[in-house]
C-alpha cells in the first residue's frame, strides 16, 4: 500500500464513515455541476454532454453514467484501501484512465481540476476539517497515481 500509506486507520475511518452519505447519484451529478461551473472550458471536452445545460445534467443519461463510473470507482478504491488490495486499486485506476483517454483534448494534468469540485461536495455535506483533509490526501494520491500511469503516447 505504498501509494496510500499516509491513510492511517483514523483517516480511513473518517473517509469510510462519511462516504456513505456522499455515495449517490445526486452527489455525483453535483460534482460535475461544480466541475463545469468552476472550469467552464472543460464542459466542451465532454462532447456527449452538448445537449443539456450544466444545470440540467441530472436529466442526461450520459452525465448519470459518468457520475456513476467515477463515484463507483472512488467507492471501490476506498474499499480496496481498507482491504489492502493494491491490485484492485490499480485496476480501478486503470479503468479511470481508460475512460478519460476517450475524451478528446483531455490531458492528465486535468485530473487535478477535480479537487475543487470535491471540496465543494464536502462543504455541502458539512464535513469537518479533519475529514476534509483526509479526503484531500486520498484524492491527491489517486491523482498522482493517475498522472504517473496515464499513457504518454495518447493524443492530447
UniProtKB/TrEMBL annotation:
Record CDD domains: Mb-like (cd01040)
Ranges where the Globin domain occurs: 6-151
Molecular function, one GO term: oxygen carrier activity
Pfam family name, one: Globin
Keywords for the protein's UniProt record, in alphabetical order: Heme, Iron, Metal-binding, Oxygen transport, Transport
Family stated for the protein in its record: Belongs to the globin family.
Name this protein carries in UniProt: Globin domain-containing protein
Lineage: Eukaryota, Metazoa, Spiralia, Lophotrochozoa, Mesozoa
